[in-house]
Amino acid sequence: QVQLVESGGGLVQPGGSLRLSCAASGTIGSISSMGWYRQAPGSRRDLVAWISSGGVVSYADSVKGRFTISRDNAENTLYLQMNSLKPEDTAVYYCYGVREATLYWGQGTQVTVSS
Fold first, then answer.
1. Selected residue with higher pLDDT from 29 and 115
2. Nearest C-alpha neighbor of 70 from the set 81, 59, 62
3. What is the CA angle 60-80-98, rounded to 5?
4. Phi, psi (5° rounding) for residue 45?
5. Confidence of residue 25 (pLDDT cuts 50, 70, 90)
6. DSSP state, residue 28
7. R_g (Cα) of the chain, nearest Å
8. Which of 6, 28, 60, 63 would be a feasible disulfide site paired with 106, CB 3.0-4.6 Å?
């Protein structure tokens, strides 16, 4: 089993920044892909960004140039640096990890962008 715990969410004004973290524990083994989804009220869960074990990254068009995903394999931690935040970025952010074809989810962290 792999446990994922997110942190770093909160309330921020438009134009501000937040850094989300996702700490992995348990039977880590070789986690391959990791990433972030988000879900706003009444909306589906959408992919925000992902990163491979080798560092290849991909972003949703809506966050390109503003968000940066990274991972520290030694610390088993995934990050999402979010800059120039907009009200439409408001959502619950979930991290995920894939290990041996099994998908694991974190519990989510709320990000609210509002003045």
1. 115
2. 81
3. 75
4. -85, 120
5. confident
6. -
7. 13
8. 6
